[in-house]
């Protein structure tokens, strides 16, 4: 299996775990923190999927999440609005990975469903474009 196909499978599995965490109607603090952790690893897998897609299909090297999301915007995978959302999502991911502040955790948790939607859209669009040879 090639690396892009591997990344697609990893992204789809990670997205499923994040969706499972978001399905908890009234999460405890532990469940909230677990959902944030699932967001962090899902984010990692999806930006690396985007990095692989850009390198293999667009001839664009990108070495950071924000560079990848800008590249996906330039390639038409993301709209201008979604590219900005991806930049904001990257900032949220950086806040949760590098520090723990209760208010930040609450804020980021409140954005997780929206972030999940964007990560799922990126993954689906990469799958569509690679399935069609584009």
SSE layout and pairing:
Elements: H1 3-22, H2 29-58, H3 65-74, H4 80-98, H5 102-131
Helix pairs in contact: 1-2, 1-5, 2-3, 2-4, 2-5, 3-4, 4-5
How would you describe the overall organization of this protein?
By secondary structure, the chain is mainly α. It has one domain (3-131): Four Helix Bundle (Hemerythrin (Met), subunit A). 81% of the residues lie in helices and 0% in strands. It is globular. The mean pLDDT is 95.
Query: Any idea what the CATH superfamily is called?
Result: Nucleotidyltransferases  domain 2
Poorly predicted spans: none
State the CATH class. Mainly Alpha
Content-based structural category: mainly alpha
Overall spatial form? globular
The CATH architecture is Up-down Bundle
Report the total helices.
Answer: 5
Radius of gyration: 15 Å
What value does the average pLDDT take? 95
In terms of DSSP E residues, the strand content is under 5%
Number of strands: 0
């Amino acid at each position: 299996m090639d690396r892009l196909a591997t990344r697609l499978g990893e992204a789809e599995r990670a997205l499923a775990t994040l969706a499972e965490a978001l399905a908890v109607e009234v999460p405890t603090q532990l469940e909230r923190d677990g959902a944030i952790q699932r967001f962090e690893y899902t984010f990692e897998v999806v930006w690396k999927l985007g990095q692989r897609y850009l390198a293999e299909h667009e001839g664009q090297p990108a070495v950071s999440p924000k560079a990848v999301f800008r590249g996906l915007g330039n390639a038409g995978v993301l709209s201008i609005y979604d590219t900005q959302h991806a930049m904001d999502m990257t900032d949220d991911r950086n806040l949760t990975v590098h520090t723990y502040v209760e208010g930040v955790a609450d804020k980021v948790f409140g954005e997780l469903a929206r972030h999940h939607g964007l990560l799922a859209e990126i993954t689906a669009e990469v799958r569509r474009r690679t399935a069609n040879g584009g």
